[in-house]
């Protein structure tokens, strides 16, 4: 057993300073990714010397990634882009137990089949994210990386681990007084809910994950949220106790801060449905709009962590933004960058175009491309298909009423009289005005708008 003095020397809680850190750690610190590290100087030297293997974990509580996962994913991406070797570990085993960190009560028992399905789907989602993120990074000036991120489930080793073997190999090295002192345990023991033995052992299971990956894949670094500090420390200590070789590589821990809004709420935890990083669960347009609606007080921090734009460029964006906050320059940049990161450049372009059409800035001219516009609105109920007979013979006021843009023909006439009905941002001159061929964008599309907010897209069927 290690002495208390040795243990304290091994685990040094250090916040990244401005001196003596590697380029990677400095950038992570500048962008707001670093909360604590173990042995900062040694970690810095290791990262400067050679490619390192690191891991970060995710519990399979859902079948897909959501924006709450984006912060740790981006932190790992920075390691990946600097030629380090990430492992993304899905808790196929620990997800059945439930991590007590940051929770006031025990999770409901997980369904085994559901966890298995979630592991399969998350594996595909994580791999897909890093492929797309690498493409995004290349387009932002980063050297392309050919390394694939290794995605594993810890059921691979925990599933065959007999209880007696676990108690002998892991439990014998765990001191109960140390386990009781962990923040995740203390807060629960002081509560009315208490803590089950199952949850109490979670930190040992996670500690063994780090040991197993260190032993089999040379993984030296674990990256986790600030609430994972105790579990990460447990892993570092277990590796040190079980490694008899003096040549064994030293393990390190890195934690990220809790990402919160200026109002103190956890980012991504808003009222209503989750914002998923998967198009069939949250449309690309709704994903884009979520970031458009970010508050001014939060947008700079989110630009730092959710984009790969240089910090000096972000400063310039914020300078422009602050001259006219109502234009939401920073939010539009954030939304476009994150949408491209997650969904690709083509999808981001469509979301931007759709947003410009739907929420055009006052007095701003709109340049439309019919093909891009139809692609952007292809699954939107505001897209209406019209025959040539209808579009070239029915007055625009009546078309507006027929397709629900206004409530009636009378309402359309009143709107036209008030100069409030537009086609392609041109005021409809009178109630009998009929569309001409030259009015159509690309010979196919007419954007019909009532007032500032309501609009439909009329598409000519060939």
Automatic annotation (TrEMBL):
Q: What are the record keywords, sorted?
A: Aminoacyl-tRNA synthetase, ATP-binding, Ligase, Nucleotide-binding, Protein biosynthesis, RNA-binding
Q: Which GO terms describe its molecular function?
A: ATP binding; RNA binding; tyrosine-tRNA ligase activity
InterPro entries for this protein? aa-tRNA-synth_I_CS, aa-tRNA-synth_Ic, Rossmann-like_a/b/a_fold, S4_RNA-bd_sf, Tyr-tRNA-ligase, Tyr-tRNA-ligase_bac-type, Tyr-tRNA-ligase_bac_1
Its GO CC terms are:
cytosol; mitochondrion
Broad class of enzyme this protein falls into: ligase
What parts of the sequence cross the membrane? Answer: none
Question: Is Magnesium one of the keywords UniProt gives this record?
Answer: no
Query: What domain of life is recorded for the organism?
Result: Eukaryota
Q: Which Pfam families match?
A: tRNA-synt_1b
Q: Which family does it belong to?
A: Belongs to the class-I aminoacyl-tRNA synthetase family.
- Enumerate the HAMAP family for this protein: Tyr_tRNA_synth_type1
Instruction: State what protein this is by name.
Output: Tyrosine--tRNA ligase
Which organism is this protein's natural source?
A: Cylindrobasidium torrendii FP15055 ss-10
